[in-house]
Specification:
About 60% of the residues lie in helices and about 15% in strands. Among the domains are: about 30 residues; about 100 residues; about 30 residues. The protein has about 325 residues and is α/β, with parallel strands linked by helices. The radius of gyration is 66 Å and the shape is rod-shaped.
């Protein structure tokens, strides 16, 4: 009987030890009968995360937190996690710590970086260490909310002090002025629409003219290039040089002709002065022509002599034998 009691006590003790071991393994997240691997992630801080908290992928538990320690420089926290070896991590994975429930439990979630691309992750120099980010807990959010509420209250008080009834009236008048100005601007724009369209047409016409001018310049440049390549420009320059030399010779000839013209002009001037002197002499009655021009009796005598000469010539034509008697022996 006594031996049976000892066996029962020993069995209970062994069963208790086994239960303690199994419970400890379960609480630590050790998977019995399944292979696990360790992964690490770096965080600036870990909040309320504890060893044994769950590790999830897409909301499904795949392991637990195994160890939490500061990095070698003391500027970050390295969290070691044991997860199932058959769990397939996403491309470019990151670790995000967040509250798991309202009772203070935390979790580590493995997710692709693209799912939370705006977070400032704590990068590690070791590529095998995942970047991590820790979301603020409820107490921190409450403190931030309280600070925001205080700031809003202060802002509300300042708005109440600044936004009096007089200010409201001024704001209303300002709004009315803005509306009036907007209506005036709309009216001016409507009035100037025709002018703007005309300017636009002029600009289009000017653009077309510039395009044509550019095309003409391009053609001139092309022709110039062709002339240069075909030695026509050299011929043109040679012709210009010949023309220049001929122009110079013509200029010399014109210079000589100019001198001759000046001499002829001087001679003509001398002749005109002589003619003028003769005219003045005739006008004064000097010489035969002068006396003829000034003496009327001489003019009458000459006229009578001319009449008599004409009568004589008529008589000779009418009676030639009277004056001419030719005898042939």
């Amino acid at each position: 009987m006594r031996r049976r009691n000892e066996v029962m006590v020993g069995s209970v003790v062994l069963l208790g030890i086994a239960l303690i071991i199994v419970g400890t393994v379960w609480l630590r997240g050790e998977a019995l009968g399944r292979g696990q691997i360790e992964i690490r992630a770096r965080f600036n801080e870990v909040g309320q995360l504890l060893e044994g908290n769950s590790v999830k992928l897409r909301g499904v538990p795949i392991g637990r937190v195994n160890r939490i320690a500061l990095d070698s420089a003391g500027r970050g926290v390295i969290v070691t996690m044991r997860i199932d070896e058959d769990a397939r991590l996403p491309e470019d994975p990151v670790a995000v710590l967040s509250p798991e429930s309202m009772f203070g439990d935390w979790q580590a979630e493995i997710a692709p970086r693209s799912a939370y691309s705006t977070y400032a992750y704590a990068e590690a120099p070791d590529p095998d260490v995942l970047p991590g980010y820790s979301l603020p807990d409820i107490s921190r959010l409450t403190a931030v909310a309280d600070e925001i509420a205080q700031n809003m209250a202060t802002l509300s008080e300042r708005v109440e002090l600044a936004f009096t009834e007089e200010t409201a009236l001024k704001v209303g008048r300002a709004v009315d002025n803005v509306l009036d100005a907007s209506e005036r601007i709309s009216s001016v724009v409507a009035d100037q629409q025709g002018a703007i369209e005309e300017v636009s047409r002029d600009l289009r016409a000017a653009t077309r003219t510039l395009g044509q001018a550019a095309s003409t310049v391009q053609q001139v440049l092309t022709q110039t290039e062709q002339a240069i390549s075909e030695d026509r420009l050299v011929k043109i320059v040679t012709d210009v040089e010949r023309t220049a030399s001929r122009t110079a010779a013509l200029a010399d000839t014109l210079l000589v002709v100019g001198r001759d013209i000046r001499q002829a002009a001087a001679s003509a001037d001398s002749a005109l002065r002589t003619v003028g002197a003769l005219a003045a002499s005739v006008e004064r009655g000097e010489g035969s022509i002068g006396r003829l021009m000034t003496d009327s009796t001489l003019f009458v005598s000459i006229r009578e002599s001319n009449l008599e000469l004409q009568a004589l010539l008529r008589d000779i034509r009418q009676n030639p034998r009277k004056y001419i008697n030719v005898r042939v022996f």
